[in-house]
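Both lines are given unchanged directly below:

***
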Amino acid sequence: MTTLVFVALARSAPAGGYSASFPDLPGLAVEGADIAALVVAAREAVLKELQRLADDGHDWPKPSALEAVTAETGVIPFLVDVSVEDTPVRVNISIGERLLKRIDQAAETRGMSRSGFIAAASRTALGEKIGAGTGADFDAIARKLQDEWSVLGRKITDSLGPDSAFNRSVNDFDAKLTETIRKTADNISAAMARRKEAEARKDEAPKDEKSQPADAAI
């Protein structure tokens, strides 16, 4: 088995929840009601996309390093690790039509692709243990992965959620900006009031001088 690690870019979805895209897998996008659901969906989507590429005879993209991916403001990168068979090599084989139909039916029943089923059957024939202790082993692995996803989900939520440091910084900036605008408006209003008062006093000064009696001649 081979483990591949792809970078995903998480962002808040306009309609609520979260969405993620993959720089190395153009066109692939997933959504989740919360971060944990997003991480689960991301892993499943990457596995299906790699299988699709293999079935179509395409090479898998080389995963980019996290530090090589540039994320926009408000976008949080996280890593999606998937365990897959060795890098696929396309081969041509001849097989009976009836046997091929049975293989396809068995693969569909197990939720596998034809290539995946043939690979698993070949490993079994070679003496490798595939899925020994199926129920208990897979359940334990699923629980372990869920714990890992939950931890990552909390980290991303802390970065993107309403109580995150990022949002607190934005709110503090908004509050400071609003206070600055308010003070500026108050200062402008006060300056205009003082100007009006000064103009009023200037206009009243000649009237007062005219209203005063002239000095009696001696």
Remarks:
- The chain has five helices and four strands.
- The chain has a mean pLDDT of 76.
- Helices lie at 35-55, 97-109, 114-125, 134-160, 165-211.
